[in-house]
Design brief:
single chain, alpha/beta, three-stranded mixed beta sheet
Length: 315
């Protein structure tokens, strides 16, 4: 329908963007249509979105001109970056700048920027409780996004800063689920001590983002944190034990040990978990489960998410 408002979704084949695309397509009101931005329209994920009814277009966050073309005529734009493809905060900030400027050029009415805290506001570079990384960051994949907030705030486009939580989907796709130790015992290895970790189903991020687009007056100019549940490592291990009917222990890995595990991004993630641990009150406080549930009545708890996805995990 020609009177539908267009929401353009960057990263449409990813976890956050894909959830938003599906939320828009499943909306019975039909108020919005969705334009799915991807670098590869021939990928299986892109083809699947097209079959569902999305208008798939090609653009690259590294190329502002391609973004301007993709954003043209958009009412709303969902912006996200892809740190783990390049591990560069500078690249991430430039990509965010490109998106903010392109959104302004096309006169978008609402932009959601999927961001995270700039941890240096809590832990300055000269604070040695955690190592400084890449000379300029404490948690690079957080700090670059947080620093890039300014591009959207100053763009002149009505914006919402969206703070997501740890994706429970990481337990499936990034090897973070329970592992067997040398004795064959299963353990969830997360450096969170006894503190709570805000988590969320990736698909629920998209549903919450759609709620923001549907109620712009309540969310424009604001920072909105979302979470499905705040759980300790022990509580998550207990949920795994129940879901798989087998004992899963919780191993609170020391931060320094986690930083030294040697996989790409280990230092970054070790610092991230320490930040979430040391500043639990701030980190959990801005990610209200109650508010997230109000935005998305279908919000899943961890147990619900596990029941739905345990077939995708082997313990």
């Amino acid at each position: 329908m020609s009177n539908q408002k267009v929401i353009t979704v960057v990263g449409a084949t990813g976890a956050q963007g894909g959830g938003l695309v599906r939320a828009i397509l499943n909306d019975p009101t039909g108020e919005f249509s969705v334009r799915a931005v991807t670098r590869n329209a021939g990928s299986e994920k892109a083809k699947a979105l097209a079959e569902l009814g999305a208008n798939v277009v090609v653009a690259d966050v590294a190329n502002k001109d391609s973004l301007v073309k993709a954003f043209e005529g958009s009412y709303g734009i969902f912006c996200v970056t892809f740190f783990w493809e390049h591990f560069s905060p500078e690249t991430e900030m430039q990509n965010a700048k490109n998106m903010a400027e392109a959104a302004a050029e096309v006169g978008a009415k609402h932009v959601i920027w999927s961001t995270l805290e700039d941890t240096r506001k809590w832990v300055p570079l000269d604070d040695d409780r955690m190592p400084t990384l890449m000379e300029k960051y404490k948690v690079p994949h957080f700090d670059g996004k947080g620093e890039a907030d300014a591009y959207f705030v100053n763009s002149g486009v009505p914006y919402t800063l969206l703070l997501a939580s740890f994706y429970w989907d990481n337990f499936i796709y990034f090897g973070m689920g329970p592992q067997k130790d040398a004795n064959g015992k299963l353990a969830l290895n997360i450096p969170m001590g006894d503190k709570k970790l805000p988590g969320i189903a990736a698909e629920d991020i998209g549903k919450c983002a759609f709620a923001i687009f549907k109620d712009p007056d309540s969310y424009q100019g604001k920072t909105v944190g979302i979470s499905g549940e705040h759980l300790t490592g022990q509580e998550m291990a207990a949920s795994f034990s129940k879901a798989f009917n087998t004992e899963v222990a919780y191993n609170a890995v020391p931060f320094g040990v986690y930083r030294g595990l040697g996989f790409p991004g280990a230092e970054d993630l070790g610092n991230m978990f320490q930040f979430k641990h040391d500043f639990q009150e701030d980190f959990c406080g801005v990610r209200s489960v109650k508010n997230s549930k109000a935005m998305n009545p279908e919000l899943q708890s961890f147990d619900q998410w596990l029941a739905k996805h345990k077939g995708q995990m082997e313990l």
